[in-house]
Amino acid sequence: MVERPNSPVCPPRRVLMGPGPSDVSPSVLAALGAPTVGHLDPYFLNLMDEVQQMLRELFQTENSLTLAVSGTGSAGMETCIVNLVEPGDRVLIGVNGVFGGRMADVATRYGAEVRTIERSFGEVFSTEKVAEAVREFQPKLVGLVHAETSTGACQPIPEISKAVHDQGAMLLIDCVTSLGGIPVEIDEWNVDAAYSGTQKCLSCPPGLAPVTFSKRAVEAMDARSSKVASWYLDMSMVRNYWSGQSRAYHHTAPINMNYALHTALREALDESLEARFERHHQNHLGLRAGLEALGLKYAVDESIRLPMLNAVLIPEGVDDKTVRGRLLNEFGIEIGGGLGPMAGKTWRIGLMGAASTTSNVLLFLAALENCLQSSGYQFTAGAGIAAANNYFSNVN
Ligand SMILES: *Cc1c(COP(=O)(O)O)cnc(C)c1O
Question: Where is the Aminotransferase class V domain (predicted)?
Fold first, then answer.
């Protein structure tokens, strides 16, 4: 017989500086422990309204169909695709990392005729390349990843959006990692559908996926000739629960996760988006000063670097797993390894949401110096911390 666990859950305290989840602020964790109410309780219905209103502010949109899907970022991805795509529809997807690949997989599973355009990991698409593929393939939907967490590259959106719309297609973007860390301007950029997750720059535990759909996307859903292939993610039913007169039961919303998201959104908006983006930017530059002083190099060109996901090349002769293991076990710091072709070649250092702090930058650099020293890597002791401190003292 398997023995029943006899100790309570007691996770270690970590500093989460990987590709997500990121550190969760104490107020957000406390919200998870507030009393659960019913999913049709007037208190909860009002809270859902407020979540939607704050999500619109965060996405910088007036889209009425903006809500939090029950599930992680990938559920947001599936929601956007399954509601916009019918079997046989043409979908063009930009694959320059793991998440573009996932998007193509999801669209294929739901019966779309998928064509991909590809770039090496760490690179992004030019407007010309996307425009050419759209002209040739004439897709209904074009999917791109705004912040490719597997590589640390930021895909510029506004010009491409214009090219996509000039050919009559709709644009879907993955902003799982970008939302709350860099500007995501759904209306200004004319994006038709976007999804995100709670555990990256919103610093909430994983479990909900903010999504937003333009008027045109809603019209496309209303004009479908087939039923949405997923019952759970069917927006035509889910949206009646989130808004409108009926507030009809569809599935039980994860009540306490919505408390947590409400709290995280309020904190993000209280900080102001502008200040939040600036904080992510400055901590990235402080970290960069430190890493470069240690002789480390970024895996992504400066012009397209994400501030919340720093992908750096692991120096020659330094063992990836040894260093990440020591960071975790001796210093309580989690960073990410490389994914796909970058496995064993890069570290992915996250500065997301509540984890994007000056003290985390300094803590990480100190711990990294310790690990590099015992790997036999040559550098000037203290140089990383000195450079970061120098950067911070000049900006503050
Ligand atoms: C994390 C992430 C996802 C997937 O989100 P999950 O919460 O792990 O399901 C999708 N896209 C990007 C860009 C991500 O960073």
Answer: 36-338
- Cβ–ligand 1 distance for 78 under 6 Å, the answer no
How many angstroms separate the alpha carbon of residue 391 from the centre of ligand 1? 31
- The H helix count followed by the E strand count for the chain is 13, 14
Please give the CATH architecture assigned to the domain spanning 273-395. Answer: Alpha-Beta Complex (3.90)
Indicate whether residue 235 lines ligand 1 (CB < 6 A): no
Residue nearest to atom 12 of ligand 1 (CA): 176
In angstroms, what is the span from residue 199 Cα to ligand 1's centroid? Answer: 9
Q: Where are the domains of the chain?
A: 26-270, 273-395
267 Cβ inside 6 Å of ligand 1 = no
Contacts of 395 (CB under 8 A, 6+ apart): 282, 285
Cross-strand partners of 347: 312, 337
Q: Going residue by residue through the chain (396 aa), what tens digit of pLDDT does each one get?
A: 788 888 999 999 999 999 999 999 999 999 999 999 999 999 999 999 999 999 999 999 999 999 999 999 999 999 999 999 999 999 999 999 999 999 999 999 999 999 999 999 999 999 999 999 999 999 999 999 999 999 999 999 999 999 999 999 999 999 999 999 999 999 999 999 999 999 999 999 999 999 999 999 999 999 999 999 999 999 999 999 998 788 989 999 999 999 999 999 999 999 999 999 999 999 999 999 999 999 999 999 999 999 999 999 999 999 999 999 999 999 999 999 999 999 999 999 999 999 999 999 999 999 999 999 999 999 999 999 999 999 999 986
The top-level CATH class assigned to 26-270 is alpha beta
